[in-house]
Amino acid sequence: MRISATPARAAMEEACNIAGFNSAGAVPVRVAENEIWRLPSRVIVRIARPGQWDAAAREVRVAEWLADNQVPAVRPLPVKQPVEADDRPVTFWEELPAHETGSIMDVVTLLKLLHALPIPDLELGRLDPFVRVAERIDAATSLPDDDRRWLHRHLTDLQERWLKRPVGLPECVVHGDAWVGNAVRTTLGPILLDLERVSVGPPEWDLVSTAVKMTTTGAVSEAEYAQFCATYGSDVTRWDGYELLAGARQLRMTSYAAQHAASRPEWQTEAQYRVDCLRGRTAPPPWEWKGIL
Question: pTM, whole model, 2 decimals?
Answer without folding.
Answer: 0.91
